Amino acid sequence: MSELLTYQTGNGETLGKIASVVDCRDQICPKPILMIRMALAETSLDQVLEIIVNEDVSKQNVLKYCWNYGQPVLRSYANGPEFHIIVKKSPQKKVDIPMPVVGPCGARWD
């Protein structure tokens, strides 16, 4: 694990430390979701992950995955062509009404 980074709200308030960064740039489905699942499995409860994507489909699928599995998104923001998603690991549970995760080919795989 690399050096812990702090994350901030939009107004600059520091909220905590990022335990690990999951770099999903230039990855196509389903690889970003698989990378996130592996990172969550290796992360302790209440630790924070930063997920970086640069594909719109990946961004939407990561957000849907976090929603579907009860992983709270603390913050998300664009930084040029990249999209950063800050997630806090919580006990993994499925929600009652999941959002479908769809790949670029249009196939559902949730």
- Structurally, how many domains make up the residues? 1
Strand tally, please?
Answer: 5
Q: So what's the overall shape?
A: globular
Helix content: 10-25%
The CATH superfamily is known as TusA-like domain
Oligomer: single chain
Distance between the termini: 29 Å
The rounded Rg comes to 13 Å
What is the strand content? 25-35%
Overview of this structure, please?
The protein has 2 helices and 5 strands. It has helices spanning 31-41, 56-68, and strands at residues 5-8, 14-23, 48-53, 73-79, 82-88. The chain has 110 residues and is α+β, with helices and mostly antiparallel strands. It has a single domain (5-88), classed as TusA-like domain (Translation Initiation Factor IF3). Helices cover 22% and strands 31% of the residues. A hairpin with a 5-residue loop joins strand 1 and strand 2 (14-23).
Which helices and strands occur, and which strands form pairs?
Layout: E1 5-8, E2 14-23, H1 31-41, E3 48-53, H2 56-68, E4 73-79, E5 82-88
Parallel strand pairs: 2-3
Antiparallel strand pairs: 1-2, 3-5, 4-5
Summarize the structure in short:
With 110 residues, the protein is α+β, with helices and mostly antiparallel strands.
Which terms would index this structure?
110 residues, alpha+beta, single chain, disordered C terminus, 2 helices, Translation Initiation Factor IF3
